[in-house]
Amino acid sequence: MSPADKLPIRMLHDRVLVKAETAEGERRSGGGILIPATAEVGKRLAWAEVVAVGQNVRTVEPGDRVLFDPSDRAEVEVRGTAYVLMRERDLHAVAAERLQGAGDATGLYL
Which Pfam families match (predicted)? Predict the structure, then answer.
């Protein structure tokens, strides 16, 4: 994200702003079966990219890919782009690329 594209907001406390990866339309299963866009999907977690974090967020940073429950979401639109706002504790996982060299770091919650 270039400085010109910087979001005109500052996140507070433990809030995380993410941009969800949209999987609209038809998709294929791991076995190659075509699943139509109208198919009902059970409770399924979704991946998103962290765009901004509040000053009390300790386990993620902008650019990380995180896993969250899309049914527990508050959406907001900034400059014509839809984002999801949530608390850090509502994230279920962080993609492992950044965590490879983290060693024994733990995320303690108070």
Answer: Cpn10
